[in-house]
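HUMAN: You are asked to prepare a plain-text protein record giving the amino acid sequence and the backbone structure tokens, both parts labelled.

ASSISTANT:
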Amino acid sequence: MEMIDTFVVGAGPAGLTTAYTLAKAGRDVLVIEQDPVYVGGISRTVNYKGFLFDIGGHRFFSKSKEVVALWNEILPDDFIDRPRLSRIFYKNKFYAYPLKAFEALRNLGLWQSTACMASFAYAQAFPIQAPKTFHQWVRNQFGERLFSIFFKTYTEKVWGMGCDEISADWAAQRIKGLSLGSAILDGLRRSFGTNRKSSGGAVAKTLIESFRYPRRGPGMMWEAATAKIKAFGGEVLMDRKLSSLHWDERKSLWTIKVETGDGVEETYAARNVVSSAAIRDLMGRLSPTPLSLFHARQLKYRDFLTVVLIGRSGKTLPDNWIYIHDPQVKVGRVQNFRSWSPDMIPDDVSTCLGLEYFCFEGDGLWTSSDAELIALAKQEIGHIGLMRSEDIVDACVVRQKKAYPVYDDVYADNVAVIRRDLQMSFPSLHLVGRNGMHKYNNQDHAMMTGMLTAANILAGEQRYDVWQVNEDAEYGEEGLSGAKEALKSERLVPQRAA
């Protein structure tokens, strides 16, 4: 049985960042990844006949200096600067996103625009106190009419449930820093072509105009991180599935069983375990059986699939992606991979679009055959008007389980119970990343959870409360140095005292 210092479950951004930081510091670390080919998790880049594409699209933009420095350290020579171009498709019209004030006014019409502003004024005058649902939170910020136009349809496609069933936590986290006032001012600047950089002040991530991107997709970052982990003496083992985790409190030691893709069982011992696996899956593999296992089983996840269409479009498509607010089609978003990076496409003439469908594992979309999904995507891309069915020459389908942790009305209580249980019963088990913490984090937030976790392991104590990432400004935007300052000023408490 191989003995290691830190065992990491999952080779996504959080797991690999943890492993990279520890391996660089000279610690013994081993990472297992269930996928037989790709590292990066949902941030991987898939290769289909030389066409490269993301699973969901990942902009490299962060307010954390440590995260940006780590990106540059891991991948120093392969970033390109890309313009951020997105649109919304609503009632057969396209809207720039973020909005351009005059374009939106023209598309909506004077009466609808006036009604939107009146609705917003009413919401400001009579806000819902302590909003609990996504609907209530957005209604307070933007008004009921703008909610129904620009939030309701797309959000319900993403989550597969009504906006009154989704927690306000998700809105506050994902639309943080954006208000109608800031959106209108930003839209006026865009309409007049004013450079926002000269205006000063912080910019909500939702409004950024450009971002950095690895020239051959985000997977390039995680392939490079994997190579460097190995160069530092760490291990990254592919095609490995976690079977069980047993904690020996007397020895302060983990015994970990892993199954390879061909059915061979491997056993490891470790002082620390870092997991980016979905909490619901992890808890079922722990022993002794966690008291909060029932709560873990209540956590829900939204799955995701991409239908990639390849051909030659007669249209010029500058967008990175287009949000589809049309209830007549099932597709939620369309990605244009050439606009992410020309190096994603192996020739100068092909168009490669990714139609993103949100679903639950086992439902009608998920269980449809690839042929059925491709036929649906061809029909819907024609309805939207981005590409004709006859121009499509090839296609493929990629499925992604547990793409999004669901923020329903009971998730927060369940996660709180699980956290307390794990801290008391399994002190050297560290949860990181989106599914590992059941938090809808961006890639940079997931990386920050890995960096802080590695810092805790290196220090031999829980100096940083990793759960504050993307909850507190110092953690989410200023990175490790901000976390230190937050602790010094007692605005946050160490995790051991939480």
